[in-house]
């Protein structure tokens, strides 16, 4: 995560500070700050070591917040906007603690030369890590500003107020933030304790502030890395192999070289790229190359129908991640089940893109990666350059949903740009290549057995999950696709499990429910027949689906209502609140059974650390075709302090819809040699015709509570609720994703 | 009962002659009536043998009953689908077991009579849009299985709108005459010279699958012209390709190729399903491999003697339109159709396409305008709709180019007229 | 050189006539809103209007566009002065990553011009050629519905857009 934070900090320093920074030391600031502590809007939240959020990795305040002499406030985050609305939320947080309007704040996102190293923007961590860091940094900057104003006015800090970008004394004298700091930087190490605003006095946080990026996006403003146009920029396309094991045995570049606009054809082993003046010229040349390329293909893929059996019989590293034993009444009934989830893809609507410029022995890459620092490391290693000579700048792409091809495109651009110094090179992937080469979310199997006692409670729970890794992200060069295709290839890093408490394949494998006896085992399968990595929610999607289906099966066996049954096994008050709220929104208690219709319920706390979410849904199953129509869904979510409630609703709605698409339609298909789901026609996803009639999302605000990541909270519960609703509608339990019409029809019979 | 593939009457209309027949009808009106059968009680679903229900499901899929008996976005088998014929619009009937609007009160015998004799429960003739001229070949056991299948469906209360037929076609008893002329009841005699698979195929194709209803041309009274069986016909405004030796296919269909096509909707050296054939292939995917193979065996036998597509001398003539069409092809089509990609994610090489070589341009026009999209949520061949992309004049140029370059035939007569006649109808997935 | 009419302006373009409009809009005319999603006519991200019809610009060669009018999202308004549909998308916060949105707005604009009284079912049908991977569908439907209602209640508003 934190490769070379020191170097990074130094280069940021060099880049930003011309000299003459006011290095404010703790000792200098401490007295006046201490003087204010009791006075600044109460509610001191004494933070404990380590420093809150990402401050623990980057403790200097000016790494997060800068104010220039004109009073312009710039906030820095190492996280990236992925369409989740994080820019707006982070601006809101800074504006709140600095008592300014959001329009006063400029936000700089992930850039290895400008922003802190916050690793990847992943795992719904942005609000927890960066939001928390910015909140505390802003509060501490506020304290410093108050201290400076107190000095200037010769008054005690406790009588000062901050309003609209100025610190004012009781007598009416005001000084703008810019005036107070001059051209100096707030180069101060953060303290463990911040004096935070009382959430009751919030004016910006907790409001559904409209997103800052939307007006530009709906009017055709430059918004994405795809829109970057640098002077002299040229366009590249990569000719990718037709299948994972393919080797390039012959390539005739003569024809393509003659085509209009073609500037250069680059070949290094199995990596072939063509550069042209215009984008479509590059596409045309790449297709011409494709016609002359001869590939030796090998059957490297497993039989698709055998994939689950293969996972189960593959060598695995087994870890018991939960083992609880307590005396319990005798079991009266034991159930068991096996659940399956196929390979699924991110399928970003905008194929991966990057722009790179190699100039004066330095390389700059504009990329929609989720981790600028790790990508920098990978590119530097691939090109055998010192990391300091590589700069990665995040620019938005289309929604990414995890580790998709964004980094690979960054690697492609870097390789091509180095072969063509002084010219910015833009490379975008073709749709077919993205469908074939992006790292998929891995196929998984879970097996669960549980016993009910005579009170209808679960007395014993045994859960096993088999999975590949869920992170093959760069950092190591070998995790870049291009690096694997070079004549001297880099081998992918050995796959590793992501440890608990977050987990990878075992994310959310530990139920939040309380069972007297429980054992959960993660069978980590290192062998990867298909290229896989992080897909939104990682193993949580599958584990929550499995757990919530099985809970439903147990509730049915016990003759209990699905919601009551869950509540009987849940101690966590916030979990209970979320479940009750979702049930209420759905009007669960007033359900009228109707032929062909069913309702389902599911709950999880993402990673057992993030947001709480419960989803209820109603489906209609058309008996003749097996087609499942989701009529409506109702959800409740608790993300701690809600910074932007509409942003949270947007994430949950989107998560529900995306999970419905995954769960109803999606699986990567392949034969022995090739991936066969190479476009949207062969990897169908949900279209408007199948969107539910309505989705209601209730946000439970928890003022003052820590921010909890929301972006992946709905996926697992939605899959569970859907499966449970299908079971309710048909009386048949579907345990293998996705629930295509064909499968449902086969299960319900004629 | 409603109509199946009745729309294929489209070009057979001759209403004036139809009116003349009214005179004859008057004399023969009595033919219009058959006695109602003894009233029966409807049977609960549980009374049916599950094996018969499953068998019936497969047979109903072979018969593609759902297509005509389901309204767009409607409940399966609940009827209401409008089928326009030259004689007026006929609505597919509700064949769910709803007692009032469906066939819930029909006895097994009544159902048998409807299927094999074209007489409804009340003894009235059924319009031959419902292809009982084929179903009469279906054996009793199979009809009973279909009955078992339909009677175990979800009953849906839904009355289709009344048929909108012009005089004299609204006189049902006329159908009696039609039957006298064209309806030959009874089973198909097996052909001892052929093997069992071929005979099974013949039984299915001539009977339940009623392939001839679309692939055989019809006369002015909408009856199949038996002397030209499988010589190509019409369905829902599409031209159905000839299945006999006059087939426009680029290479003869073999049993294996046909089997693959009927199973997956695509065969990489022939064609992709489009138009009214798409739901048929969709249904066949749930039919046993043996039966689909039998159908393929029988149908492939019609093409015996077919030679690979002849190269026309005229094709080489460079028309100006062809030059303009070539430019459109290069921009709009070549990126997929010239890549030579395979079944998955690929597009057919147009030199293999049947649509460019058929006697009429209708199918090509429709495919270019509407595209080809798989059923919602399902995987399958894809082509985008070019309805708004190309003007009629551009479509004409493109069609001329495709015809001469890939169909290797002289340009169609009155292409522009055909393009105007076929209303743009952009499809949505 | 081919002359295109884009958003009411004649634009000279030096490109192979087989070049899809999408690339010309993005690369030659430096318009951002028309997006490359698949190049196969499967996702709708590249949708623009040609003579009032929504079409996929990724499969429309510029050779077919002589004397025809092309409209892109930039022709409907700006972020300071958004058009009716754009305003509705902002009001409904109908986007996540936003990549799919301009294409949908263009098809919705064609609907609005042809059938302002479209029902919710019509809107779903109309938008079915479009994919959104973020799952912003519910909001998108609301936004289009809102714009249609606004167009109906104020028919003189900019339903026809600005450049016509
Ligand atoms: S980019 Fe044109 S439809 Fe996808
Ligand atoms: S908002 Fe991201 S694809 Fe639609």
The pLDDT mean of chain A sits at: 92
Secondary structure: helix percent of chain A: 25-40%
- Structural class by secondary-structure content of chain C: alpha+beta
Which spans of chain A have pLDDT < 50 for at least 5 consecutive residues? 1-48
Number of strands of chain C: 5
How far apart, in Å, are the first and last alpha carbons of chain A? 54 Å
CATH architectural grouping of the largest domain in chain C: Roll
Taking the alpha carbons of the first and last residues of chain C, their distance comes to 25 Å
Instruction: Name the overall outline of chain A.
Output: globular
Describe this structure in words.
The complex is a heterotrimer of chains A (750), B (429) and C (164). Chain A has 750 residues and is an alpha+beta fold. Chain A has 19 helices and 24 strands. The two termini of chain A are 54 Å apart. Chain B is mostly helical. Chain B folds into three domains: 45-182; 197-303, Cytochrome Bc1 Complex, Chain D, domain 2; 322-421, Orthogonal Bundle (Cytochrome Bc1 Complex, Chain D, domain 2), CATH 1.10.760. Chain B has 16 helices and five strands. Chain B has helices at 15-28, 50-63, 65-69, 108-117, 132-135, 140-151, 174-182, 196-206, 212-215, 255-264, 277-284, 289-302, 320-337, 362-370, 392-405, 415-421, and strands at residues 82-85, 88-91, 164-165, 233-235, 238-240. In chain B, helix 2 (50-63) packs across helix 6, helix 8 (196-206) packs across helix 12 (289-302) and helix 13 (320-337) crosses helix 15 (392-405). Chain C is built from five helices and five strands. A five-stranded mixed beta sheet of chain C has the order 2-1-5-3-4, sandwiched between helices. In chain C, helix 2 crosses helix 5 (137-153). The longest helix of chain C is centred in the last third of the chain and has 17 residues, at 137-153. Chain C is globular, with a radius of gyration of 15 Å. Chain C starts with a strand and ends in an 11-residue tail after the last helix. Classes of the chains: A alpha+beta (750), B mainly alpha (429), C alpha+beta (164). Chains in contact: A-B, A-C, B-C. The B-C interface holds B 327-328, 330-332, 334-336, 371, 382-391, 394, 428-429 and C 17-20, 39-42, 50-51, 53-56, 59-64, 68, 125-126, 128-129. Residues 36-39, 41-46, 56, 58 of chain C line the site of one FE2/S2 (inorganic) cluster.
């Amino acid at each position: 995560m934190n490769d070379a934070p020191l170097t990074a900090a130094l280069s940021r320093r060099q880049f930003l500070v011309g000299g003459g920074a006011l290095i404010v030391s703790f000792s200098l600031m401490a007295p006046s700050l201490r003087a204010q502590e009791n006075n600044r809007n109460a509610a001191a939240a004494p933070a404990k070591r380590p420093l809150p959020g990402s401050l623990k990795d980057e403790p200097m305040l000016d790494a997060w917040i800068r104010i220039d002499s004109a009073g312009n406030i710039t906030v820095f985050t190492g996280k990236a906007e992925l369409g989740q609305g994080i820019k707006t939320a982070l601006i809101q947080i800074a504006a709140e603690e600095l008592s300014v309007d959001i329009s006063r704040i400029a936000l700089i996102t992930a850039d290895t030369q400008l922003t802190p190293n916050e690793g990847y923007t992943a795992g719904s961590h942005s609000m927890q890590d960066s939001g928390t860091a910015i909140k505390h940094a802003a509060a501490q900057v506020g304290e410093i500003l108050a201290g400076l104003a107190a000095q200037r006015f010769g008054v005690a800090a406790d009588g000062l107020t901050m309003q609209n970008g100025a610190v004012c004394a009781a007598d009416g004298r005001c000084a703008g933030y810019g005036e107070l700091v001059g051209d100096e930087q707030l180069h101060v190490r953060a303290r463990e304790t911040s004096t935070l605003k009382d959430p009751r006095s919030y004016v910006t946080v907790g409001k559904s502030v409209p997103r800052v990026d939307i007006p530009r996006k709906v009017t055709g403003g430059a918004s994405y890395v795809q829109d970057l146009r640098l002077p002299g920029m040229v366009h590249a396309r990569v000719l990718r192999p037709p299948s994972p094991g393919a080797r390039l045995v012959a390539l005739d570049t003569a024809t393509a070289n003659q085509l209009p606009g073609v500037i250069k054809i680059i070949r290094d082993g199995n990596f072939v790229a063509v550069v042209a003046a215009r984008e479509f010229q590059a596409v045309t040349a790449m297709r011409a190359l494709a016609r002359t390329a001869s590939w030796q293909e090998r059957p490297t893929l497993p039989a698709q129908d055998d994939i689950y059996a293969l996972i189960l019989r593959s060598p695995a590293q087994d870890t018991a991640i939960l083992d609880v034993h307590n005396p319990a009444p005798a079991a009266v009934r034991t159930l068991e089940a096996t659940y399956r989830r196929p390979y699924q893809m991110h399928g970003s609507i905008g194929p991966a893109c990057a722009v790179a410029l190699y100039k004066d022995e330095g390389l700059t890459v504009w990329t929609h990666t989720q981790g600028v620092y790790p990508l920098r490391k990978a590119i530097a290693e691939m090109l055998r350059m010192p990391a300091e000579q590589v700069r990665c700048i995040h620019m938005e792409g289309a929604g990414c949903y995890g580790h998709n091809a964004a980094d690979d495109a960054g690697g492609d651009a870097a390789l091509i740009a180095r072969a063509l110094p002084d010219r910015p090179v833009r490379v975008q992937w073709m749709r077919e290549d993205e469908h074939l080469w992006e790292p998929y979310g891995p196929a998984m199997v879970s097996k669960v057995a549980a016993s009910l006692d005579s009170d209808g409670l679960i007395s014993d729970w045994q859960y096993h999950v088999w999975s590949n890794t869920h992170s093959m992200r760069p950092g190591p060069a070998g995790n870049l696709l291009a690096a694997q295709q070079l004549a001297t290839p880099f081998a992918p890093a050995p796959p590793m499990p992501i440890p608990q408490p977050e987990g990878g394949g075992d994310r959310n494998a530990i139920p939040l429910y309380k069972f007297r006896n429980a054992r959960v085992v993660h069978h980590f399968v290192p062998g990867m027949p298909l290229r896989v990595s992080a897909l939104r929610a990682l193993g949580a999607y599958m584990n929550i689906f499995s757990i919530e289906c099985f809970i439903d099966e147990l509730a049915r066996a016990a003759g209990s209502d699905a919601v009551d049954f869950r509540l009987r096994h849940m101690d966590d008050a916030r979990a209970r609140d979320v479940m009750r709220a979702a049930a209420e929104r759905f009007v669960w208690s007033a359900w009228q059974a109707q032929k062909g219709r069913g309702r389902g319920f599911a709950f999880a706390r993402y990673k057992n650390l993030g947001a709480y979410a419960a989803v209820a849904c109603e489906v209609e199953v058309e008996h003749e075709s097996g087609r499942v129509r989701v009529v409506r869904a109702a959800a409740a979510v608790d993300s701690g302090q809600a910074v932007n409630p509409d942003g949270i609703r947007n994430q949950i709605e989107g998560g529900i819809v995306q999970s419905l698409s995954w769960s109803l339609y999606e699986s990567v298909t392949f034969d022995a040699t090739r991936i066969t789901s190479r476009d949207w026609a062969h990897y169908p996803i949900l279209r408007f015709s199948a969107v539910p009639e309505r989705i209601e999302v209730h946000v439970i605000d928890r003022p003052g509570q820590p921010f909890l990541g929301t972006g992946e909270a709905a996926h697992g519960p939605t899959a569970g609720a859907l499966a449970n609703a299908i079971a309710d509608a048909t009386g048949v339990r579907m345990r293998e994703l996705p629930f295509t019409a064909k499968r449902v029809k086969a299960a319900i019979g004629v | 009962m409603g109509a199946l593939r009745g729309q294929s009457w489209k070009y057979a209309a001759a209403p004036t002659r139809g009116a003349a027949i009214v005179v004859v009808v008057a004399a023969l009106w009595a033919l219009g009536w058959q006695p109602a059968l003894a009233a029966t009680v409807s049977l609960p679903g549980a009374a049916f043998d599950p094996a018969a229900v499953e068998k019936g499901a497969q047979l109903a899929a072979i018969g593609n009953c759902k297509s005509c008996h389901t309204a767009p976005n409607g409940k399966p088998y609940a009827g209401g689908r409008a089928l326009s014929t030259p004689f007026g619009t006929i609505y597919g009937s509700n064949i769910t077991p709803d007692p009032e609007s469906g066939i819930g009160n029909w006895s097994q015998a009544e159902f048998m009579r409807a299927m094999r004799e074209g007489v409804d429960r009340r003894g009235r003739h059924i319009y031959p849009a419902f292809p009982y001229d084929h179903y009469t070949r279906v054996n009793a056991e199979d009809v009973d299985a279909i009955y078992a299948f339909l009677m175990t469906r979800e009953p849906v209360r839904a009355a289709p709108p009344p048929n909108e037929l012009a005089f004299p076609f609204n006189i049902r008893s006329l159908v009696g005459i039609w039957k006298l002329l064209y309806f030959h009841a009874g089973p198909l005699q097996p052909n001892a010279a052929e093997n069992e698979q071929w005979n099974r195929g013949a039984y299915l194709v001539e009977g339940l699958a009623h392939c001839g209803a679309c692939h055989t041309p019809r006369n002015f009274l909408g009856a199949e012209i038996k002397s030209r069986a499988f010589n190509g016909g019409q369905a829902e405004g599409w031209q159905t390709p000839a299945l006999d030796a006059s087939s426009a296919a680029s290479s003869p269909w073999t049993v294996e190729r046909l089997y693959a096509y009927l199973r997956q909707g695509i065969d990489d050296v022939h064609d992709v399903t489009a138009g009214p054939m798409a739901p048929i292939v969709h249904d066949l995917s749930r039919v046993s491999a043996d039966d689909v193979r039998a159908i393929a065996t029988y149908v492939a036998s019609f093409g015996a003697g077919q030679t690979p597509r002849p190269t026309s001398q005229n094709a080489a003539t460079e028309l100006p339109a062809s030059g303009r069409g070539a430019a459109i092809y290069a921009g709009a089509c070549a990126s997929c159709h010239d890549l030579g990609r395979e079944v998955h994610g690929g597009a057919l090489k147009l030199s293999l396409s049947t649509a460019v070589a058929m006697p009429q341009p209708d199918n090509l026009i429709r495919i270019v305008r509407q595209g080809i999209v798989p059923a919602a949520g399902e995987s399958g061949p894809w082509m985008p709709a070019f309805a708004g992309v190309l003007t009629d004049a551009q479509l004409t140029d493109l069609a001329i180019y495709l015809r001469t370059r890939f169909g290797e035939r002289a340009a169609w007569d009155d292409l522009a007229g055909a393009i105007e006649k076929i209303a743009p109808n952009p499809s949505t997935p | 050189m081919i002359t295109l009419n884009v958003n009411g302006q004649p634009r000279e373009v030096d490109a192979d006539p087989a070049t899809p409009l999408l690339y010309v809009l993005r690369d030659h005319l430096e318009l951002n809103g028309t997006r490359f999603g698949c190049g196969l006519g499967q996702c709708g991200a590249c949708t623009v209007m040609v003579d009032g019809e929504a079409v996929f610009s990724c499969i429309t060669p510029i050779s077919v566009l002589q004397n025809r009018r092309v409209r892109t999202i930039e022709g409907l308004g700006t972020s300071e002065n958004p058009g009716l549909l754009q305003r509705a998308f902002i009001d409904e916060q109908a986007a996540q990553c936003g990549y799919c949105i301009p294409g949908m707005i263009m098809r919705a604009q064609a609907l609005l011009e042809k059938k302002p009284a479209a029902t919710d079912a019509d809107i779903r049908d109309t938008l079915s050629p479009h994919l959104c991977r973020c799952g912003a569908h519910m909001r998108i439907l609301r936004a289009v519905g809102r714009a249609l209602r606004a167009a109906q209640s104020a028919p003189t508003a900019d339903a026809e857009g600005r450049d016509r």
